[in-house]
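Extended Data, panel c. Modelled sequence:
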Amino acid sequence: MKSSLEVAEVAPVPGPGPRLGEQELAAVERVLASGMLAQGPEVAAFEAEFAEHVGGRRCVAVSSGTSALLLGLLAAGIGPGDEVIVPSFSFAATANAVVLAGARPVFVDIEPDRFCIDPGAVLAAVTRRTAAIMPVHLYGHPAEMDRLAGIAASYGLALVEDAAQAHLAALGGRAVGTFGAVAAFSFYPTKNMTTGEGGMVVCADESIARRVRLLRNQGMERRYQNELVGYNARMSDLHAAIGRVQLRRLPDWSATRRRNAEFLSCALAPLAEHTRLRLPCVGPGALPVWHQYTVRAPRRDELVATLAAQGIPAGVYYPTPIHRLPAYGLELDLPHTESAAREVLSLPVHPGLSPGQLERVAGGVERGVAR
């Protein structure tokens, strides 16, 4: 019979997931006791508190990250006949929101080091139908927003940030979500903070924010005074109450993610020098929040299997570029996107990891690459 120490040594390394505790439970119980379950004072408070992290911009809480993207696009005036330039290396919701808005996603390549949309590819894709650029701050690393903002300004395009994975990330001291006309954050349970389900639209001006508020609530701000055709995309007070607690904990969690990422980079650097393993690269002036710690590895799928056999979870985000998914089925020449889809592997970096578990992750990668 194994000792408790031996059992602990072989226990699987925990994967990412929501970190919920007594504070979240108390917040939910408070809302349940109030009887106010739908959109109400908790949502308003959550919006105001989130705004403090995005330069005081107007924030509108909605039912999901996808809803945030869709309503943000619509509020920015994107619709039928428009083209929106997007990276193909992202989750499908990035492009799906464009299609749901009635526009056409134009897929372009990424830059290979940080996996974000390539500004050069964006510039080459601009046509007379282009209405917006939608960069994705993938894995919590900011896209090259200064260059993208310059392109958008030169051609009169809307800049819509997909910041679903980038809560509290910054570039040049400026918070992600404050560069474009609109930004969308997600609070899905796998994100760096959660509300259970939900999203936030960050708006550059009041006219856009008001339109988002109308769109999320059947087109009305006042009851039975429907100004346009809208959706039911509201966030409940239950979800907002959880989000308020999570938002207070987010700075500490983000700091822990950065420390964990630094440990992995230091531990794996000697291995990367002598193999084809490529570690994450942080861009100039970027402050990433490490939603994922993503390496590039030869024989990626074999490494995933080797890590799994050691009880180390590793994810592949994303094995198929959006343009090749059955919903789109396009043949495009996006070499950096295709290469990333073959090679990327995300290692555990979340704040629930102990020092010993981080060492196991690094050791597991070393053993897997050496095979």
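The first strand starts at residue 58 and ends at 62. This feature is highlighted in the accompanying rendering.
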